[in-house]
Design brief:
The chain is mainly α. The protein has helices at about 15-20, 25-35, 40-50, 55-65, 85-90, 95-120, and strands at about 40, 70-75, 80-85. GO terms for molecular function: DNA binding.
Length: about 120
């Protein structure tokens, strides 16, 4: 891959689309949450913590639209809906786990650098 101007991250570049999809913090957390298997909406809300039902719904729809999450509706009373990763969504498990490990190992250093920089600005 070349880093010359005009060769990477063009408007229609697949890498740019991928980054746009996963750059959303709720998308990454939702995909990670579904990596252990199908979950219902309420279970995801509890698992993720801090996400509103509305934002989770929007996130799930966006991930569905991009083919990363499947929505299964069961013909029961009351209706039961479960979300799971598609085969395509499963291909993101390893990169998400790697990024999570990086954050666990380096998060304190990043936070300290940020705190130091913001202290120096004042």
């Amino acid at each position: 891959m070349s880093l010359r101007p005009g060769t990477v991250f063009l408007t229609d570049c697949p890498a740019r689309l991928a980054i746009e999809i996963i750059a959303n913090k709720w998308a990454m957390v939702t995909l990670f949450g579904l990596s252990e298997g199908p979950l219902r909406h309420g279970e995801l809300v509890e698992l993720i913590g801090g996400v509103s039902r509305k934002v989770l719904t929007q996130t799930l729809r966006r991930l569905q639209d991009h083919g990363l999450v499947a929505r299964q509706v069961y013909a029961e009373a009351p209706p039961r809906v479960e979300y799971s990763l598609t085969e395509l969504g499963r291909t993101l498990e390893e990169p998400i786990r790697a990024l999570t490990a990086w954050a666990r190992d380096n998060g304190a250093a990043v936070a300290a650098s940020y705190d130091s920089a913001s202290t120096n600005e004042t």
